[in-house]
Amino acid sequence: MGAIQIIAEIKWNNRDPVYIQVIRYFKTRIASGSLEAGQEIPSRRELAAMLKINPNTAQRAYKEMEEQGLIHTERNLPSRITTDRDVLAGVREELIQSALADFLDSIRPMDIPLEELLELVKRQYRGKGGAGHD
Amino acid sequence: MIEVMEVTKKYGRKKVLDSLSFTAEKGEITCLIGVNGTGKTTTLKAIAGLVPVSKGKILIDGEPYNKHIYEKLAFIPDAPIMLPRMKIKDVILFMRDFYPDWNALRAKDLFHFFKLNENDRIGDLSKGNMAKVNLLLGLSLDVDYVLMDEPFSGIDIFSREQIADVFASGLVENRGVLITTHEINDIEHLLDKAVLLGDGKVLRKFYTEDIRSSEGKSVVDIMREVYRQ
Lengths: 134, 229
Hints:
The complex is a heterodimer.
Chain A: H1 18-32, H2 44-51, H3 55-67, E1 71-72, E2 80-81, H4 85-107, H5 114-125
Antiparallel strand pairs in A: 1-2
Chain B: E1 2-11, E2 14-24, E3 29-33, H1 40-47, E4 55-60, H2 69-72, E5 73-76, H3 88-98, H4 104-113, H5 127-139, E6 145-148, H6 157-168, E7 176-181, E8 193-198, E9 201-207, H7 208-215, H8 219-227
Parallel strand pairs in B: 3-7, 3-8, 5-6, 6-7
Antiparallel strand pairs in B: 1-2, 1-4, 8-9
């Protein structure tokens, strides 16, 4: 039972490598805490079927995540999320930095005074507005 | 590996295939893309040994065409291949008795996967269900390569999704799959390799993940570049 439920509502972007998008999906879930340290994850084949992707792509995503130390696999056991706290904290940091960089890149050309921007962010962050982009 | 090496096929004076070269690997999904009349079906038939080529070579796992090739590959056309009055269950029994390579377990899995009705007659099936039956027949043979002609064409979106899901499931296993299509939308993330054909020639061939990594382009982007020239 321990394996995670994957909600396969990923909208694939055809211009980014699919394996990168799979890794991003895992990282987002690690950062948000919905995937926890040491948690069991689906096999490559199960993941491919859940996300409806090519099994080779699932394989590549897992291989890359192993190399990044995000997941590990002991011989015949199911793969698990790493228990290395530093790696997990790094994922969160990385995602926040990259989202922030995207945000700043698109807002900077508008030359909004920082105070006003911070005020807007504060006001909208908890509300429904402004969330999510593509 | 299927190796198509500088294959030319002429019907009379008309070159349908013009020095065509590409490979399709085991464990990968390779897609021949092109508008109607670019030689996609002829290519599949040539690989299956159903039409002789005028020039060039086709090797399957390093061997030229011989009678054992039938044990290595299955060709699934985009038309019904069974008699219209047969029920789906009769077709499955027929295949089981006729082909030593028939994998009854996988056939059963695919039958459930597609939610087919065993008492439906071939002649009464919708295009989508016919495509599913054809796919079931082809994938239930224990062969190394499956050639599928237009498995996604002219069928409803739900059948399309189900057929696409088969490629993501374990049911294809480690076989080499070579499909043709002119509709790439919503399946491109499933493909390993794309081979773009035009007038019987290979215009471009690439691994889809590579083109996304190196150029940030989708298969459709590349098709626009290639076919608009």
